């Protein structure tokens, strides 16, 4: 069977939250497809080793930029850096995000605000900064990494659910604004993924165990039981969906919110 050409060779890409997890898997895959990728996150050490991993791919190349995407000037600085280091920007993956197990009563105003800044304002500013340039060249791809929690609220962290729902709406609005000019904006909504967010010491599995007074393994088993597929996704499985949406092959997909959740959210849309 002939290989599917994703048409990503020489494409210039920015991936936020690319130092680990889904973002790193996406950056690696884009590099393997021959793209030039700017990896963005806060932690310099992790970024350095992530870029090295990406650079070991035979085709593309990887640079990195350490910045907090919630800073108001970050979007302009990231896009300027892409122009300088990559010569422009064709693909933007808004992936930086996080959560913590917090009950409705525990969530503070500051935590609500932080989730809003990270999941809505940061991707909004990056799209606002990047999409015009893409539209002038009549080609662009944006993928917003949202969550199944944005489609169906989870009480694990309602601020996460609400801001991920807002990110889905944001993604749709930018899709409507730019599709006619060749910039295709889409969202991916993963369910539970086996990244550090869940699995690292002190991550969501441990937080859930503490909150419910049960073993960490029980929390993970309960989570798997909610997924028709019966298991967590691997970061590379989500990256495969993101990279397809970044590709030439996804040429009629705009404004979609693709579930990649093993069947967790039982809706057809
Ligand atoms: N894992 C899941 O089960 C799951 C499910 C559904 C959706 N998602 C979504 O998928 C995305 C990636 O999740 P993940 O599981 O891969 O998370 P992760 O392993 O915790 O990685 C998060 C990445 O985002 C970066 N980041 C966080 N805050 C940032 C900020 N303010 N500025 C710049 N970079 C920042 C982190 O690096 P630094 O900390 O160094 O900045 C890291 O590179 C998130 O949007 C998340 O909501 C995850």
Folded structure, characterized:
With 269 residues, this protein is of the alpha/beta class. The protein has 2 domains: 12-193 and 235-260, NAD(P)-binding Rossmann-like Domain (Rossmann fold, 3-Layer(aba) Sandwich), CATH 3.40.50; 194-232, no CATH class. The protein is built from 10 helices and 7 strands. It has helices at residues 21-32, 44-55, 74-86, 109-136, 148-151, 158-178, 196-199, 204-212, 216-225, 235-246, and strands at 12-16, 36-41, 61-66, 91-94, 140-145, 183-190, 257-260. The chain has a 7-stranded parallel β-sheet with strand order 3-2-1-4-5-6-7, sandwiched between helices. Helix 1 (21-32) links the parallel strand 1 (12-16) and strand 2 (36-41). The radius of gyration is 18 Å and the shape is globular. The mean pLDDT is 97. Bound molecules: NADP nicotinamide-adenine-dinucleotide phosphate (NAP).
- At the third CATH level, what is the topology name of the largest domain? Rossmann fold
Structural class: alpha/beta
Percent range of helical residues: 40-55%
Please state the overall shape, judged from the principal axes of the Cα atoms: globular
Q: Compute the separation of the termini in Å.
A: 31 Å
Count of the separate structural domains: 2
DSSP strand (E) fraction? 5-15%
* Major sheet attributes: 7 strands, parallel
CATH architecture of the largest domain: 3-Layer(aba) Sandwich
Report the count of strand segments: 7
